[in-house]
Amino acid sequence: MDSQNFPSPSIAALERFQSYPFADDADYQQGLAGIVSSGALEGKSEDEKAEIILGSEVFYFNRISDISITLDEARIARRDFQNQETNIASDSSTIPLRLPAGNQEQQTLTFAQLKELIEQGRTDEIPNNKIIPNVLSSDTPSESKANVRKKPWEIQATA
Amino acid sequence: MNRPLPGVLHTPGFAHYGIAWSPFHNNRLALASSANYGLVGNGRLHIVGLGLGPGGLPQPGIDKFYETQDGLYDAAWSEIHENQLVTASGDGSIKLWDVMIKVGSARISDLPIRAWQEHTREVFSVDWSNIAKDQFISSSWDGTVKLWTPDRPRSLTTLQAHPSCVYQALFSPHQPDTVATCSTDGTVRIFDLRSPAYMPSAPGANSFTAPLAAAALTIPASGGEVLTLDWNKYRPWLLASAGVDKAIKVWDCRMVKLGPDAAQNPAVGGVCEAHLAGHEYAVRKVQWSPHRPDVIASASYDMTCRVWSTTPQPGAGHLLYIHDPHTEFVVGCGWSLYDEGVLASCSWDCRLNVFRV
User: In B307-356, which residue ranges form alpha helices assigned H by DSSP?
Assistant: First the structure.
């Protein structure tokens, strides 16, 4: 691609960053798992956590691609998408939650289509088959405040 | 008669496997699900809140969800911590979640607070004890049942319960340390966790196969796979079982003897007290009412969820109610613990229905 005609970085580069499947990239997820398990997100606010994660994405993207974008540019590229996400999440009790990033998420395969993809070894085309980091949360679990409730049969037995 | 439409929650791409109502919050339940029919791909644990829908019916909505590497087959809420629950996964893992922990980025999944990896095959059920409230059990296709407590990194006990898949294991709601299991092998078994012992070796048995734990009682429940069971909440030794033979059977097991003697003389028996026929395909889940000793719900591959009475009125049949809006296998059903008569069903059609019976 000829990027000479654009100011650096090109719109195309930002688009590539925005659409990069971080969730499906095993190397990236492994790196991210390392960041999480190191406790780097511990005690941070939601915004701070998002910044750290975005920073890790920019670092990784610049390393594996032939282009270089800055954190500010990445922030701008991501902004519209982020806004969409938070609007939906905040109202999730009434509206069915829209599934997060990745256009393949909404896709549902028939049993036969699925069987064919598995048999042909094309598992990368199967939706909802991404890498989830196998690490534990470094946050402190919540404290229990509620009293144990009696079950209906326990109430009747003591009545 | 027109029935009110159920409250429906749709989770596209994620077929359901199990429902668990919170023992603390009237309007909260957990939904275990798997992508791609559980064959390949991720799992998702949905935390569902119930609002007030049209006609006063509970309207389910997703409060949050957790993603897992492999499909999820079951979930159970802690009986001592209102924010915590465990899940059973296809990769053999068991994970403990705290619903108050939130990483909160669109780019990273929220994480479990503990994980255990001992089962060598799919974990198909988890159940939290209502008596020893710091314990839960898991059952697996590896033939074992394991006893756990959240604070220990390893299981407390492992029972080699069956020679094949253990589809469900449940604590007795009345008798401490007593667990019932059901399996591919067609039996329902009752184990006394205080008296672990192995079956006397049968003649010709070899030392290459794992010895089976001695059951206090073995019920030859079916010629086919037994997929589900439940303890009656009001009659301590009454069990229901169901599976591939399509029937729900109710077993009086009062003849069971617990303790060390029983382990030396494993009994076979169970008196079949009721036989509820009507489902057209395998029954995947049964659950007794928390409020009534004679009412039981069932979920079936025939795409219906049904409610039955074991003591019908004269002239009436056992069947009380059929819920049939699902368009795929119905694999789970669960009674609200505190709102009498409210039942939830979940299905491979990726829909959770909540309705009043």
Answer: none
B150 domain residue, yes or no: no
Q: What is the pLDDT of residues B105-143, one digit of tens each?
A: 555 568 999 999 999 999 999 999 999 999 999 999 999
pTM of the model: 0.79
Structure tokens at B78: 């802690």
Q: Examine residue B206 and state whether it is found in any structural domain, yes or no.
A: no
Structural domain range at position B96: 1-115
How close A4 gets to chain B, by Cα (Å)?
A: 32
Q: What CATH number is attached to the domain comprising B101?
A: 2.130.10.10
Residue B187's nearest CA partner among B149, B239, B119 is: B239
pLDDT in tens, B221-235: 999 999 999 999 999
Cβ contact (<8 Å) for B103 and A49? yes
Question: A153 vs B100: CB contact, 8 Å cut-off?
Answer: no
What's the number of domains chain B is made of?
1
Cβ-contact A23, A130 below 8 angstroms: yes
Of B10, B61, B114, the CB nearest to A93: B61
Q: Which residue of A has its CA nearest to B104?
A: A46
Residues contacting B153, CB < 8 A, separation 6+: B116
